[in-house]
Predict the structure of GNAT family N-acetyltransferase.
Amino acid sequence: MYAIPLDDNGGELGPLEPWHAEELLACVVRGRDFVGRYLPVPDKITDLESSRAYLRSYMEKAATDTGRLYGIRLDGTLVGVVLFRVMDVEQGTAEVGCWLEPAAAGKGLVTKAARHIIDWAVEERGLHRIEWRAATHNEPSIAVARRLGMTKEGVLREYFPHAGKRHDFEIWSVLAPEWRAAKAAASA
């Protein structure tokens, strides 16, 4: 398996496929309470078969060019994912998302991984608009959107039902010209 180094501290980004189901399930189990505060992933991945089904669903999305899923590893252990939950190549849009187990939080892995896949989407696939959505009380996720240079566009009030209540979601985005300008400024 090929992996893209994210840092000098053992962080890597790489593909996830159905044969990674046990590894994904173990990651979800370790992060169940942490991830489950904001996302329904732990409700969807509860056993080996649901883990395989989740990975197969993203293989299908990749095959139809409507989404992608990548693993974030730290010292060889799967600790989270970064993904294009949805992609519309014809419209030039995608929504990037992530989740991470608590032991890997605060190391910048999500920001670095998201940077890689956004760059791929803009430069290789020609997408024009990349969105990031996060519950308004999910400060770590909102901080990633800020670090990626995204612009807050608004709040979808009571948009997302999760864990027995409806949550407000913020929408952040970056456009291809903004992404390229920020990259150029960073390398200058």
Remarks:
- The first strand starts at residue 4 and ends at 5.
- Helices lie at 21-36, 41-44, 48-63, 109-124, 139-147, 176-187.
